[in-house]
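Lecture 7 notes: from sequence to structure.

We start with a single chain of 218 residues. Read the sequence below before looking at the structure.
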Amino acid sequence: MSRATPSPHHPWIKVCGVRTAADVEACAESGATHVGINTWPGSVRCVSPAAARELAACARRHGLSPVLLHVEGSALSMRDALCLRPDYLQTRRRPHGDLASELDAAGVSLLESRPASDPELLAPTWGQVLLLDTPSPGSEGGSGRTFDWSLAASAPRPFVLAGGLEPGNVSEAIAATRASGVDAASGLESSPGVKDPARIRAFCEAARTAFEEIRHAP
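Now the structure, written as tokens:
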């Protein structure tokens, strides 16, 4: 499992919204490093708390780092992450006080999700890893749309890039932003919520190639 901070030598390839063991297996076979697990009822990628625990265990068995997504209204609270023990808790809300200490003691790192349009984009990060995304109006989740990648030039580094990524644009996105990781959900599906192994494979392959080109660039 990859708990290392994303970097040119350890880039992240995260597939978000896995719902089945077959999804996890496809990610592992394709060379992904992280999988995102969603328990927000408003998402087509939502799974039950019991399924989330099974998926996290399945991810670990396949050498992948499980990431628990948390937004307001999720079936699993931030504190529930202490039981699920993901490698990362992905959230836009900074845990404070005892909860922050408990998460840290349990070995749960924070993946800080920040909208690329945030006027505080230049602010120092509070999470161990920063993720830039395109917000969905009316919720804390991603929209599945790309944003103006030039905005990423001012972001703290390293960061993971999300927002409308898919096999056809991930290489361009990595080259344009010099991100140290990428994250995709809807762009890897045959229909909403249904992961497509072929698209996962193509996405991971394109991302790996792009990261290699940047790493070896003069």
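DSSP finds six helices and ten strands in the chain. Keep this in mind for problem set 3.
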